[in-house]
Amino acid sequence: MGVRAPPVGSGTDGAGVGDGLRALRLRGGDGAPERTARGYRRFRCRDCGKQFNERSAGVLNRARYPSDVIALVVLWRLRYRLTLRDLAEMLLQRDMVFSHEAVRDWEAKLAPVLAGELRRRRRGKGGARGRHWHVDETYPEVRGRWAYLYRAVDRNGDLVDTLLSEHRDMAAARAFFRSAKAAAGLVPDRVTTDGHGSYPRAIRTTLGRRVAHRTSAYKNNGLEQDHRGIKGRIRCMRGFKSFASAERFCRSHDELRDFLRPRTRHNQHVPARRRRLLHLRRATAALAILEAA
């Protein structure tokens, strides 16, 4: 059948599915919703009669463990300086027995879903200050060689985009600016870079001739400090074994880090109580995205 389990609808017995299919929520003899052994609600397709549950056709459909546990593991994997084995050991204290390879598999499946949704949500929300971009590169290790992680933030310090490349050249710069324009949903008024030779032409051909290009020895200091986030996170990983895993992790980490960022501008003071509230609210939203994948 290939449908996702429907959300709770306006009726008591049925809910609409995105492609127009109607599903009937199954109920037991006592009137309570029928659930699987792991507690997921069960439904029956009104058209073909096939039964399915909340995780059917999802990324986690055949996973052994509850969706909320897997979502938490992936969130911790992206957010904190924990290795695959660290996470497996931590959940062992809760009688959850799985290998570090299971963590790797969950990350590979769920991290792109989270990154894509967070990227979609922030599109076009930069405002006036979002039209001034700061662009620089940092250097993660992939297969024993240095790669180039292009990163851009706006004047508020909010993420514009991230792109990993095996080369630092004109093609990579153009690909990055195309990706950044698509992610931001706008064309900047000004771009500040370190003056690498590929940037002027890439900016003209990708963003347009009206975009001002500024080179400065110190205007990108804030972005260079911001590189500490991804560099500190991957240090304990001792590099990546494949380009695909490096690209996936770097983008997902930056998207989540930006989403959980409590400040709305540089050097803003956010009281501890407010920081905790924002983190809890946003982490809960991120977990909901992962659980629904």
UniProtKB/TrEMBL annotation:
<dbReference type="Pfam" id="PF13610">
    <property type="entry name" value="DDE_Tnp_IS240"/>
</dbReference>
<dbReference type="GO" id="GO:0032196">
    <property type="term" value="P:transposition"/>
</dbReference>
<protein>
    <submittedName>
        <fullName>Mobile element protein</fullName>
    </submittedName>
</protein>
<dbReference type="GO" id="GO:0006310">
    <property type="term" value="P:DNA recombination"/>
</dbReference>
<dbReference type="InterPro" id="IPR032874">
    <property type="entry name" value="DDE_dom"/>
</dbReference>
<dbReference type="InterPro" id="IPR047930">
    <property type="entry name" value="Transpos_IS6"/>
</dbReference>
<keyword id="KW-0815">Transposition</keyword>
<dbReference type="InterPro" id="IPR052183">
    <property type="entry name" value="IS_Transposase"/>
</dbReference>
<keyword id="KW-0233">DNA recombination</keyword>
<feature type="domain" description="DDE">
    <location>
        <begin position="132"/>
        <end position="257"/>
    </location>
</feature>
<keyword id="KW-0238">DNA-binding</keyword>
<dbReference type="GO" id="GO:0003677">
    <property type="term" value="F:DNA binding"/>
</dbReference>
<dbReference type="InterPro" id="IPR012337">
    <property type="entry name" value="RNaseH-like_sf"/>
</dbReference>
